[in-house]
Write a structure and sequence with these properties.
With 131 residues, the protein is mainly alpha-helical. The protein contains six helices and no strands. The protein has helices at residues 13-29, 35-42, 46-50, 56-75, 81-90, 119-127.
């Protein structure tokens, strides 16, 4: 049977309001708030929060506070750097470097082979000078 208002609610409106307040309090009181930690304490699945638009702002606040705390803790030496880096990578950080190489004036790289050179140009190279 189809539910008249769409998918049935997992929480009553009262439970949802209480959960929103509890989540906001958790974010405000924890030094490094962790979404899964909050969900474990509240005995709910984290997907229940992600599936609800009402929690989107708090989820973003929680993630932003966690990110800032991890970065500060790592920079100030309060956290083990490898642990903080691991957690930050879970938030989308990356330590990969990307290098782009281009030719003259940002154009494509021009590859010249011996077959492309004249006999005089090859002789100049062999003599140690290139014009």
């Amino acid at each position: 049977m189809v539910h008249p208002g769409g998918r049935p609610r997992k929480f009553t409106r009262k439970q949802e309001k209480e959960l929103l307040q509890a989540f906001e309090e958790y974010i405000d009181t924890e030094d490094i708030p962790i979404i899964v930690d909050f969900c474990t304490k509240e005995k709910i699945l984290k997907q229940n929060l992600y599936d609800r638009e009402e929690f989107s702002t708090l989820l973003k606040r929680c993630t932003a506070k966690k990110e800032a705390a991890l970065e500060k803790g790592m920079l100030y030496g309060d956290l083990v750097p490898s642990a903080a880096i691991f957690s930050l990578k879970q938030l989308g950080w990356s330590d990969k470097q990307q290098t782009e190489i281009s030719g003259k004036d940002g154009g494509p790289i021009r590859i010249t082979t011996a077959e492309d050179l004249t006999d005089d140009e090859l002789a100049n190279i062999a003599a140690g000078s290139r014009k």
